[in-house]
Specification:
The protein has about 300 residues and is of the alpha/beta class. The protein has helices at about 5-20, 20-30, 35-45, 65-85, 105-110, 110-120, 135-140, 205-215, 230-235, 285-300; strands at about 50-55, 60, 95-100, 125-130, 145-150, 160-175, 185, 195-200, 220-225, 240-245, 255-265, 270-275. The protein is built from ten helices and twelve strands. Belongs to the LysR transcriptional regulatory family.
Length: about 300
C-alpha cells in the first residue's frame, strides 16, 4: 500500500510539533491556519490515523505521531540535503549521514574514519547517536538513522546484521596489579579480586553473562556501573579489575593500565552494521559505509578471506 503525501505535508506536521501550535507554525511556514490544517488533515488521512491531539490551548503528538517524528525529521533533512547536493559537483557534494553507534566504537574508532571521509567529502555532515546496543537497534528500526554499528543479538526480522569484526572481552588492570605480570589469564584467576562490571541492562553484560553461564562460570562482581568508561576510572583508581570489550580499553600505551587476554573460554562480541531490511541508503551514507568497512578491516586486521559485509 502506498501513502500519498507531500513534502509540504510533512513540514506542516513537524512545524506544528516543534512550535507547539498551529498559529506559530502557520506564521513560520508563511501560510494561513486553514491551509495548515488542511495539510495536517491530508497527512492524517494518508496515514490512516490521527497524528496530533488538539485542545483549545494545546497541541501535542499522538503516540503514533511521536513515533513518526524522528523518521519525518530525517526524511526532510535528506530531501533538503539532496537539493543542495544537486547544485554541487565532483568531490564537493554535500549530504547528511545519520548513524546509531555503540559508544565504544563512536569514541575510539569512528572519529578516525570520519576524519578520512571529511578529507574527501568536506561538505557532508554527520549526526551520530552514541547509544547502547538496544537503543541503537531501535533507532535503526524506527528509521531515525540510516544504519547502526552494533553488536549481534537482534531478533527483529526487519533488520539485517552484517558482521564486521570480533571484539574480545579482556582484563583491564593497573600495572601494579598481580595479574598484570601475566601474558594472559583464565576466568578462575579473577575470582580472588574485586571485579567491576557494567549494569545488567547493558548489552555487553547480557552477552558476557550468557557466555559464562554456558561454561558454568559465575563471577562475583563487587562494583557495578552504568558506563564502561566509569569502570576504567575505578580500575585506574586501584579499586579493582574490570572485564570489558577490548575496543573499550585505551588504545596504545597507557601510563597506569594494561589489558590482558582472558582464555578458557575466550569470549567476544560480534560488531557489525545494522540496517533495515529492504531499506536504501543515501549516496552520502553509502560512500561513508564503504569507507567505514574498508578502514575497519584494515585497522582490525580482519583476514581477507572472511566473508565481506554487504553494503
Amino acid at each position: 500500500m502506498s501513502i500519498n503525501c507531500e513534502i509540504l505535508d510533512l513540514r506542516a506536521f513537524l512545524s506544528v510539533v516543534e512550535l507547539e501550535g498551529f498559529h506559530r507554525a502557520a506564521e513560520a511556514l508563511n501560510v494561513s491556519q486553514p491551509a495548515l490544517s488542511r495539510r495536517i488533515q491530508k497527512l492524517e488521512m494518508a496515514i490512516g490515523a490521527p497524528l496530533l491531539e488538539r485542545t483549545t490551548r494545546h497541541v501535542s503528538p499522538t503516540a503514533l505521531g511521536t513515533e513518526l517524528i524522528p523518521l519525518v525529521r530525517r526524511m526532510l533533512e535528506e530531501f533538503d540535503g539532496s537539493l543542495f547536493a544537486v547544485r554541487d559537483v565532483g568531490m564537493q557534494r554535500s549530504g547528511l549521514v545519520t548513524i546509531a553507534c555503540l559508544p565504544t566504537a563512536a569514541f575510539y574508532f569512528l572519529p578516525t574514519v570520519i576524519r578520512q571521509f571529511n578529507a574527501e567529502y568536506p561538505n557532508i555532515r554527520f549526526r551520530i547517536l552514541d547509544l547502547p546496543a538496544i537503543d541503537g537497534l531501535q533507532a535503526v528500526a524506527r528509521g531515525e538513522v540510516e544504519f547502526g554499528i552494533n553488536i549481534m543479538g537482534t531478533s527483529d526480522p526487519d533488520l539485517i546484521f552484517d558482521r564486521l569484526v570480533e571484539d574480545p572481552f579482556v582484563l583491564a588492570a593497573r600495572m601494579d596489579h598481580p595479574l598484570a605480570d601475566r601474558q594472559e589469564v583464565g576466568w578462575s584467576d579473577l575470582e580472588p579480586f574485586r571485579l567491576i562490571t557494567v549494569h545488567r541492562s547493558s548489552g555487553n553484560r547480557t552477552l558476557l553473562d550468557a557466555a559464562l553461564a554456558r561454561s558454568n562460570i559465575k563471577l562475583r562482581w563487587f562494583y557495578e556501573v552504568t558506563h564502561l568508561s566509569t569502570s576504567l576510572g575505578l580500575v585506574e583508581a586501584g579499586l579493582g579489575i574490570s572485564v570489558l570489550p577490548q575496543m573499550a580499553t585505551p588504545q596504545g600505551d597507557h601510563p597506569f593500565l594494561v589489558t590482558r587476554p582472558i582464555r578458557t573460554p575466550e569470549i567476544s562480541r560480534t560488531i557489525g552494521v545494522v540496517r533495515r531490511r529492504g531499506g536504501t541508503l543515501s549516496p552520502a551514507a553509502e560512500r561513508f559505509l564503504d569507507m567505514l568497512i574498508g578502514t575497519w578491516r584494515v585497522e582490525s586486521r580482519v583476514p581477507e578471506d572472511r566473508p565481506p559485509a554487504t553494503s
